[in-house]
Structures are given as C-alpha cells and as structure tokens.
Amino acid sequence: MSGEVSEPIKKCSLILKNAKSDTEKFAALFMVTKLIKGKDCNQAGKRLLFESIGFDFLRKLLTSKDVPDDCPASVYQSVALSILSCFCDDEQLATHQDMLDSIPVFMGIVSTCDDDEYDDNLIIINEAYHCLQSISLYESGRLALRQHDVITKMAQIYTQRSFQIDEALTLIVTLVARFGANSWDNDPKLFHALLQRVSLDFETDHAERKFELAEMISSLLFHCRRDLVARTVQGEIWPECLYKGISDILKSKIGKAQRDPALKLAANAVDVLGIEWTLHDVENPKKFFLLLLQLAAIEVRMQMDNKSFNQCVQQADLITACFIILELSINFMSTDQLDLDQKDKQQVYTGLKGAFSAVLGVLVKLANDTKKDRLQKTEKAFAYAMVRVLTAWLAQETSAMKNQVSKVLPFLFKLANESFYESRDYRIAHKADNVDDHEQQPPADILRVMLPAICHLVVEEEARQIFLKEKEEQVLYDCLLFHWSIAHYKKPPVPRAERLKRMNEPDPEMTPQQLDDMKDSRTAIVSLCNILMNITVLEAKLVEESTLFAQLLRFIFENLPELKDIPDNLVMHGHLAVLGLLLLKQQASKIKKNDFSICRYIQTTIRFLWDAYNIDESNDPQALVVSMQYKEHWFEIMELWFLGMQTMSGIIKLIPWISEFAIESGWAEGIVETLRKVKIGTLPPNVKLAYEDFLSQLVDANPAVAPVLKKADALKVADLLHREHGFSRELANETATNYLTAFRRCPDNPDVALAQWRSQLWQDVLPGTHKHLASELYGRWLEWRYRYLALPVEVQTMLQTLRLQYLLGIITNGPTAAQWEKIDRLALNKYFDCILVSSDLPWAKPDRNIFYAACHYLGVPPGQCVMIGDKLETDIQGGIEANLGATVWLPLPTEQRIIGDRTMQDVPEHVRPDAIVDSVLKLPAMLPPSTSFRGRRPAEAEVGDWEQKTTRNRAAQYNRILPEIPDLYSTYSSSSNDCSQHSNGSNSSNNSS
C-alpha cells in the first residue's frame, strides 16, 4: 500500500535513531540518499527518514566549522544538501519550519558561488538552488522567501555574479509572479540594474535561451512598479537592448514558438515604456512600429477568425498581449505624431479592420452563447480585454463595422457595466486603506476605457437608441458620482477627541496612487460630460421629461460651486458647467426662482465664462487674449466656451430672471468695457459675436441692461433704426427689406471694395435725412447676418467628427469677395481641406471641371468622392456628370416635399441623386466607411504645394492666385470609370455648398 514504509527504510531509520555519535549518523546518511532515490521510497518513508535524521544534525552539517583537518566543510555541506534536496520534493518537508529557517543558510551558499571554495563543487550550488526553488513552489515557502528578502538578494546575485545566475533569475520570476509589483521597493535602482543585465543577455544571446529570457523579462515587466519605472527609465540602456533583441527576432524567419514570446515581451515593453519605445530607430522610426502593429493584427486574426470564445480563451495570454499593442498603437496614431504615407495608412487600416472583424465575430458568438452569464474569472478577464481593445478602435473609427457593432452593443454595455460596479464597490470598500498596495489591484473597469467610444457612438442614431434602451444613462450617472468622489477629494474628518492635537499638524500628503486616481477621474468626468451633452442635444424631449437628468442637473447645481479652484480642475469645471447649462435650457420650465442652489451654480458658471479672456494679461493694452490660467488647456475648452456662451444666451430667453446675475456680478458691464478697450479689427469675429449675442439677449430679457449696453453701441440694427433714430416700425421694416432685396440682387461689385459697396446699398435705401447712417447700419447688419448664419453646435461637432475620417471640401458658386467673406466669418477653413469659389476659377457648377479641380487639390480620384448639395441643377447634376462615386441631395426646406410619400422617381433622370437626406445631421450615417486612418493630406503632395492649393493668397484681397491647372478633363474622365469601381477604397467626401 502507498502508505506503508519499506523494510530497508525502517532499518535505516532504526540505525539513525540508535546512532551513538555524529560520526555513526553521518556514515548512515550515505544509505539515506540511495534509499530516497529508490522506487520503494514513498512520502511516508521520506518523512520517517527526515524525523530519524533530525534537522538539528543536518543544520550542524551545513553550518559547522568544526571539521577534521583533512576534510573540507564543503563535504559535509554537500552531503546535507544532497539529503535536503531529496526531501524538498515533498510539500510537508519543503515547508517544514526547520527547512524555512534554513533559507539564510541556502542563500549564503548561493551568494558565494563565485568563490574559489566552490570552483570544484558545482553540486553544492545546484542543490542549494534546488532547495530554494522547491520551497518557492508552495505558498508558505514563498512567504518565507519574501520575508528573507530573497528577491533583492537574488537580483544582486544576477547582476553581480557570473556563475549559475539563471537559477537566481528563475527564482526571482517565480516570486515576482506571486507578489506582483509589491516585490519591489520604492528605489528602482535594483530593478533597473537587473533589467539591464538580463536585457543585455537577451540581446546578445542567439541560442534557445534567448526565448526563455524573453518570457522571464516579460514577467518582470508585467509585475513591475510601472508608474515608478516609467518615471525613472530615462537614461537607462535596457530599453534599447530590449528593442534590438525583439527587433532581431521579429525580423527573422521564425516559427510560432519564437514569435509568441517575442510578441508578449513587446506588449509588456510598450505597456511599461509607452508606444514611443518602438521608434528607437533614428533612420526609420516607423518601421518597427508598423511591423509590430501588423504582426499583432495578423496574430489576432489568426487566433480569433472563425473561432469560438472557448478556443480563443486557450490562447488568451498571446491574444491579450496583441490587444495591448493594438490599443496603444491606435491611441498613438490618433495623435497624428507619426508621419504615415498613404500606402502605410491603407495597410494599417486593412490589418486593423481584419483583426477587429475577428474580435467582433467572437464577441457576437459569446453574446449569443447561453454561458455568457456564467463566465469564469479568466474567461471574464478575456471578454473584458476584447471589449477594451474594440472600444479603443471604435473611439477612432466610429463608422467602422456599424452593423456588427450594433448587434453586439447591448452585450458590450452589459460587460462594461458589470466591470464598473465591481470595480467601484471594491475601491469604495478599500478607500480607507490609504496605502499604495501594488499586490491587490482593483478589478478592471471596462466602462472607464469605453467612455471615449460611447461619446462617438451616441451621435449615431441606431447606437444611441440602443444606449437609451439599455438605460445606460443611469449607469453613467452612477459613474459620474463615483468619479466625482475621487476627483473632488476631501480629507477624512478628524475625530472630535483628536482635533486639538492635530490642529497645527500639516495635512497628510496624498500618495502617488491617489494623485493618479484623481487625474484619471477628472478625465473620466470630462468624457462623461461629453456623452451626456450629446444626449442632451440629440434627445431634447427625453431630457426635458427625464427624472434622471433632473437629478443630474441638481447634482451639478449643488456640487460644482464646491469644486476647488485649482488649474487641474479647470477643464472638468468647464465641462460640468456647460453640461449644466444645456440641461438647464431643456428643463427651464421646472426651475424655481427661489432655488438658491441655481444661484450659486450660475455665479460659478459666469466666473468660468468671464475669466476666459483678458486684456490686462496682453502685451498690447488694446488686445484681448486668452487668460494665462486658461491658455494651457485652451485647446480642450475653446469650443466649450463658445457653446457655453451660446447656451447662456438661450437660457436668458427662457429664464429671464437669470439676467440679474449678469448685471449684479458686473459681467455685462465688464463685457461692454472690454469691447470698448479692444482695438477695432483685432477682436476675433467669433468672440465678438458670442459677446454681442449674449448682450442682445440681455437687452431683450431685462430692460435694465439697455442703458449699460447703449454706451457700446451693442443694440440690434432694428433697434437702432426704431429706438435710436426715430424711424417708425413700418419705415424701419421697409428700409431693411429694400436693402436685402438690393443685396441679394448684387452682393458684390468687383470694381468696389466690399464694405464700400454694401454701405452704398444702405445709402441708396435710406431716406435723405439719414443717409449718413449707411456705414453704421452696414456694420451692425453684417454682425447680425453672421450671427444667424453661424453653424449650429451639432453641425460643428458633426464636421469635426467627419474630418477625423474623411477629406472634406467645399465648391461654391458666387462672387469672390462675398463668398470668401462668408467662409472667413464662419471660420469654415478649420473644417475643410479644400475650398473652391467659382469666381476664382474658369468654371462654375455644374461644369464637371470644377469638381475635377476639387478632386485634384484633395488628391482623390472622382470615384472615391461623395457630392452633397442642396441644388439639383448645379450640385447634383455636376456631380453626376463628373462621375463622382455618389451624390446626396439635401433639399432646401421648401423642396423637402419630395421626401416622405414621394420617391426618387419623382426627380428627373439627369439630376437624380443616389440618396436624399432631410437633415444634414444624418449625413454621417450615409457615408461609406473610412479606409484611411485619419488621413487628411495626399501622400504625394509637398506641404508647400498643399498650402498653395488649399488656401488663397491673403496678400491679394479676395483674389485667389491659382497654380497652373492641368488638363483635368482628360486626366479624370478617362479614369473615372475605373475609380468608381473602387469607391470604398478611400475616405474622402467632397462636400458642396
């Protein structure tokens, strides 16, 4: 039986117990070694022998210096270690307290492995390592090894010794895998020294050991103190050694056994060092980046295409490593720091699309699987990893694979929500710990990384309806509350009994982890605000009636005024303030005048809007500039500021008593004084428009404002005629109507300056006694004209989103001066890559050549362009004759009768578009998928040439200096049919107005 002890072992045990001296017992030990290695020695036999020998005797052999003159101590140590290494194979003996207490002895032996004493006795070192490694196989053993600081000592051995260091590295990796980042202290020097030595070995070794080292380095990086290593790696050589070693592997002809560890190591390297680590090659920095990205994409496709979820889980480590590479690469490319040519972009897009099609396929199968609600821990972790990498892609390529994404979106929300609540509950439960615990990491929060993608998804009609059906707004509200509790940190209350004692003590410093959490939560809140803003604008009726959005508004009212006024909070403050304004506008009917919380909120929001621009901080006392405290973050909050000003103006219409805050705070008067001080012509038109629109609404809402604003001539043109100049209402209306008639008949005269011509038009319609008002009225009319022509916020957002994926262009018929004024005043240059005015060219719509000119300047074949226009006889007909890839008709409101009960057949054949849309906001859903990764410049165009083609010469007023135009007709008419065969090959949209 397995529990019976053999007779030889019993006899040996009896001899050991009856030994009358150490010499007799020592002699009997030679029998023990042979018996332990015999086939009849079971666990019970080993334990009997161990007890019979007694650990005191073995320790004496290991440590005693009292040995015969002709017998070196190493002989006794060798015998003892030989015995112990045999016993260590048994868990009970390996974790025996006497064995654990001998760890320092084993460490002492292996740390002297380079000494002359051990040159001729390699067995002693091997068996000491064997004992340590056997101990490390069990939890109590690992805890004991950590207590004796074995990781530090082994790292020192590896970095300083030359003999049998692989055993030391193996032991380090084993322990680090158990204790994670807590294996390392706050001083990164030892970690960097260890990585330097092992990375150098990895780079220079060309045998199979190279791939073993790859796996070990990968584990060390995965379990390191990432924040600390990333901050202190500057100047270290080991990242370059890793780069060279991995590059050598991936550029060689290798098999799966060699490629897999290299990909895993590369993933951990970019995760710790950042994706910029892949750009080490000075001569061709993008080469290795593209190689790694393509290999990761191919591997994902190979491992996941047409595979089940269970099959993919078996390769989860490798696939997840590739996910890390893909996610970080996508995020890096979105910053436009990498100069990729058109061929590179196409290859990257093709590779990524194939990879994410495979990921989506597995997610769809999992979503339809009955086991999706019973996933094991490792399975759930892999499912989270799939959602994470997919949403990183969707955050950049919002139009990619819409149908597949819509099918799986409810399941994605379900997984993300589960992960959020699990992570939130864990972090709340451990909030009081206030320590940097690198071993106990909180569960993954997939919803947090999904937020940027959700922001884009809710703009799409189908995805937004799924979002609302799943009641995801409630989850986001919970998410906002949680992240607010972190971002708006308050020190824990001091018990009453300790207040006096702590009165003069400084506040405890926050840990690096707390500071990182606060930063991340601020970013999360900004993303949440963007999502909720989109919902508020696009689902106005729902928001107006929603109890949840009323709670959200109440939360902002009550909490935003309490936010600390520090630079780190500025962007978050602005987003919450403007979200509050949008919600307030929708729920204006529910607001009570005696609600004190709204008073504090409005005051706080006014402060945000008021402080953005400043004259005193400018070098020029007559120039308005962005305030210093806003300048660092202005790119993030510029559009937000304009949206806030616009929404505030709208709120004053709905809730007139809010205007009192603008008066009492001095803001209205401050704006007037600012407009007075600023040098004429230097104020940005959009800023001036925002201020004047707001002041105009104040005049309409509160008569007390008019005397203040009169000083700055800020009243509407209609009011000027009626109130200021004594015109009757009828005469004022007649005069304005006559001017508009003359203006529309001839808005521009090439022989006269634009302002002079329009002032003349005013002079012609004014009564004789008031002709001197012509210039003043023209100036006021012009400002109000562009106030009403300004693009709605949702259209601006749509154009910004489209331009991330497509090339955009405008073709417009009309006189040069008038059309370019419109383009400049509306700031359309920032949305479009090419703008053509017919008067600048030999052609006008519907001449096909003007469409070919746009294709030429954009560097895109006609068959890959989409024409969007409101006139059938110019826009659509011209697009058809130019053989563009598609035409979309956006009828004017008076023409929209063709949409609905009538069909496309009601449109004449020669001007029949491919599609009709009744709202410009529906365009994104109709456009073909993007196939270029955020590309906006043709690869073959030089920068100077591009600028010449897409911007007019500002030195010549309203006269575009054109480059020599080639024979566009022969160039494109012969190839347009071929191009139209591949209309999905390029993401460019030729937008016409």
UniProtKB/TrEMBL annotation:
GO terms for cellular component: dendrite. Residues 931-950, 972-993 are annotated as: Disordered. InterPro entries: HAD-like_sf (IPR036412), HAD-SF_hydro_IA (IPR006439), HAD_sf (IPR023214), Neurochondrin (IPR008709). Belongs to the neurochondrin family. PANTHER family: NEUROCHONDRIN (PTHR13109:SF7). GO terms for biological process: neuron projection development; regulation of neuronal synaptic plasticity. Signal peptide: none annotated. This is Neurochondrin. It comes from the Eukaryota. NCBIfam families: HAD-SF-IA-v1.
